[in-house]
Amino acid sequence: MKKISVVIPAHNEEGNIPLIYQRVKDVFSTLENYRFEIIFVNDGSRDDTQKEIEELAQNNDEVKYIEFSRNFGHQHAVKAGMDSSTGNAMISMDADLQHPPELILELIKRWEEGFDIVYTIRTYPKQISAFKRKTSTLYYKFLTRISDVNLSEGGGSDFRLMDASVVDVVRNMNEADIFLRGLSNWMGFRRTGVHFTAGERATGESSYNLKKMMKFAFTGITAFSVKPLYLAAYLGFIFSALAAVGYGIYVIHSFISKTEISGWASLIMTVVFFGGVQLIILGIMGIYLGKIFNQVKERPNYIIRSKNF
């Protein structure tokens, strides 16, 4: 029998743990010649998520869990589950049931057809705000243009299947700021996509606020591209050239018209403008230096407080 490892990161998902377990179990009950394990990764939850997981594990041998010592982030939680998976294939999905477990059947079907990575292409239901849909679409279009990976529109989802051979490759990576959505594309292998409509969160509220989304966006951009550094250099050359040309014209005009060069307001605005440009460039460079700083320290990506296997 083939074995499928289902990795589910959870952060304050106490109400969703029993629900997603039952739905995943129902899916595999329809499959012959397959067995499964569910690896819950408790990413520093402050509610009773760990208690719910442990109760499931006591009564169900297929339930495994990893408890972090604190919140290390969603991507590291998925990576921890992948590091501990033992199946012929691994499926990662969120605990809030926005990733429908019933789609597992289609993912496994495509895997059996010979694909190493089966990713999902998400579309949002009508009740999701137009702002969230539009910003998500624009972000992945921008990421595709500015980086070295090509994320399909709507393909930015951590709901995917990976063959064990792909999981082994990811397991040997030790990036401080890991971005699995980009890595699954960058690695190559045989890939195919499956469309799905995101469901509603079953219980609780999402802890993925604007600050976390912005940090995740910058991680994706800087993890797969140095183009922002080139952009900073180009901006420097362009504005320097514009300043030289503009000042030259201003000087020539003052000689021809026999007027003095004056205008403190324009001078101050120019200084402030170019000062802002310099800060932007320094900020871009600082982000990359910060990533190097975190990487060379070689601290572990996560710390396990407890596990049952």
TrEMBL record:
Domain Glycosyltransferase 2-like residue range list: 5-165
Transmembrane regions listed in the UniProt entry: 229-252, 264-289
The name this protein goes by in its record: Glycosyltransferase family 2 protein
Superkingdom per UniProt: Bacteria
Keyword set, alphabetical order: Glycosyltransferase, Membrane, Transferase, Transmembrane, Transmembrane helix
Cell location: Membrane
Membrane topology: Multi-pass membrane protein
